[in-house]
Recover the amino acids of this structure.
């Protein structure tokens, strides 16, 4: 099971999850293969999302662990650490928020 599928399953069930996402789009904030802990959001937490939060979210049919770059009443704009904007997503499309990330890549 991919890290993304595991995160979706656990967060949808209301459980926190630790995963090791791969890719370089969030460096230097998250290194490829680093262990990250995501927790599901309550409705109140979803309403309180702010610029800079790192979230697990579906944008245009794809799942991302990226940061919130802008917010409005109903949506959040999602971008990587290098400033590339992926698009806007409804707040309800955010399944989880990053609560912890290891600073260095772990060897598998």
């Amino acid at each position: 099971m991919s890290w993304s599928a595991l995160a979706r399953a656990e967060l949808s069930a209301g459980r926190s999850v630790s995963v090791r996402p791969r890719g370089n789009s969030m460096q230097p904030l998250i290194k490829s293969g680093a262990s990250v802990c995501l927790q599901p959001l309550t409705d109140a937490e979803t309403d309180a999302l702010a610029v800079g939060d790192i979230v697990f979210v579906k944008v245009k049919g794809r799942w991302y662990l990226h940061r919130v770059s802008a917010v409005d009443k109903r949506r959040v704009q999602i971008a990587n650490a290098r400033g590339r904007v992926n698009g806007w997503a409804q707040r309800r499309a955010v399944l989880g928020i990053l609560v912890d990330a290891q600073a260095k890549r772990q060897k598998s």
